[in-house]
Amino acid sequence: MKELQKLTKDQLYKKLKEKSENLYNVVYEAMENNFFNESYLDEESLTEFLEMLDDETAEKIKDASLSINNEDDTPEIVLIENESNTSLDLITHEDEGYKIVLLEGDLNLSRQLFVEDYIILIVTGNIQAENIVINGSLYCSGTVTSKVLFGASGNDNETYIGGSIMTSLIAENGHYTVSEGNIYSRYLISFHNEIIGKTGKFIENISIERPGEIGLLKAEILDEDGYFDENVFLTFIETNSPDALFNKPANLF
User: What does the CA dihedral 95, 175, 179, 32 come to, rounded to 10 degrees?
Assistant: First the structure.
């Protein structure tokens, strides 16, 4: 990954609006709600409030307000260029906080795309990769094609795809996934949130969406209490096909 330029919020929004009005609208709402919503008092309202207090109390509140308003806790925004056609792992360093990463155009990888918890990746084209693992958030204006698309974020983050999703396996473990188009997949696993194809969801073989269906997964993908083991799953898909995750009913395969 090569960082080309640091962007302001307004520069990011301008670039998105030029590429896709729909992507701009979705990202704008998510970013304003999560990162850029200024909840503190404006200067005029604060002045009026302070005038009602004694001088000592007013001075303390004013100092505290200035300290809060001067904290730079908004995420860094960067425009990147992908330098590898194999894998792209987007991670932050310790104490770095959230980072918004913009990649213009298509992203084509022969292996893995990984987005960690504190990364918001925005792609203004299509994405193609073998395995796509999203722990942060992904916003893509185009179509996603992969063997596996997996999201897990404790129900904090989301994957938004402006086109369709075409996979062998689409799965989530506490992650909202939505496609404006269709979802086409051989298998689907959904435990704690939703996977939505707004114009259709077509699952060829097995769809696991209720707790009672977890027995369709091989025992080695479950922990000792019989629950989905995310770490084992992620290791398993690196070297196995999605078919190998499932017990095989007699009427399939």
Answer: -40
Using the Cα atoms of residue 201, residue 100, residue 109 and residue 208 in order, give the sign of their dihedral.
negative
Tally of CB atoms within 10 A around 232:
14
Closest by CA position to 206, among listed 227, 186, 183: 186
CB atoms within 10 A of CB 217: 19
Q: What is the DSSP string of 146-198?
A: EEEEEE-STTS-EEEESS-EEEEEEEESS-EEEESSEEEEEEEEESSS-EEET
Neighbours of 160 (CB within 10 A): 20
- CA-only gyration radius of the chain, Å: 22
pTM for this model (two decimals): 0.86
pLDDT tier at 10, thresholds 50, 70, 90: very high
